Amino acid sequence: MIKGMTGFGGAQLVWKQVKLVVEAKSLNHRYFDIAFYLPGGFGSLEGKIQQIAQKYIERGRITISIKITQKPSQDVVLNKEVVRKHLGYARDLAKEFRLQNDLRLSDVIRLPGVVETRESFLDPEALWPALEKSLQRALQGLDGMRQREGRALVADISNSLKQMTQQMKKIKMRSKAVLRAKRKELTVEEFGAFQKGCDVNEETSRLEHYIQEARAFLKSGASAGKKIDFIAQEMQRETNTIGSKLQDKIVVGAVVALKSKIEKIREQAQNIE
Fold first, then answer.
1. Which of 75, 79, 93, 136 has its CA 20 to 30 A from that of 227?
2. What's phi and psi for 16, nearest 5 deg?
3. Could you count the other beta carbons within 10 Å of the beta carbon of residue 29?
4. pTM exceeds 0.85 for this model
5. What is the distance between the alpha carbons of residues 204 and 65, in angstroms, rounded to a whole number?
6. What residue ranges do the domains of the chain occupy?
7. Mean pLDDT for each 10-residue chunk of the chain (273 residues)?
8. Are residues 42 and 27 in contact, defined by beta-carbon separation less than 8 angstroms?
9. What is the CATH number that goes with domain 147-269?
């Protein structure tokens, strides 16, 4: 299936006390290019994420984002050994300098190192099985958008190819009419030279072949953006030759229309995977 290169997909994940949001975005690009926006410590998953993304995407600039929206609660640790040391020093000072020992619980709690809060460690490898499923859902959503864009692009390019075929018929009919008129006006030698100089049969045949090739690529379901862009370049070359060979008002109008459609096809090919 022909796909576009613009898409978005997202999924939410709840795993134990953790909540995450996974997002996948894609834009036009000549090659496969992926960027990651991951929480700290999740860099080890980049290879696995890329392998999954490449199952859905052949070409485009891809951004994979994972955001932690809820972490496990922090652990509060009471260091009793630190308390003993602080109190021991306080007693020694009170005894040596004959000070009044009036330490209260609130004072002890505020002493350095007595109470600590520690972040709960989130192991990305333990999280991966659940995260992989969420990533799959996000990429499926993105892929769905790219497929819908692809269908729209196929319809638009097919319409341009149809209109090109109509202009080709106009050029071929006008070419015959011009030759008939010139046959009456010119001598045999002059007509032979004129016919040789303005013969566009070869160019129109190649253009018709390229139109059929483009249609075949649109039906193939394979990644066709670069192929269609190449064919459009060849179409442009043949059209330019027709315009330079056959200097006729009607033909010039048809050539201008052909160039317009070819340029549109090239623009749309940039959006195809």
1. 136
2. 55, -120
3. 15
4. no
5. 50
6. 7-72+122-146, 75-118, 147-269
7. 94 91 95 94 94 94 94 77 86 81 82 77 88 96 96 96 96 91 85 86 94 93 88 96 90 95 95 92
8. no
9. 1.20.1480
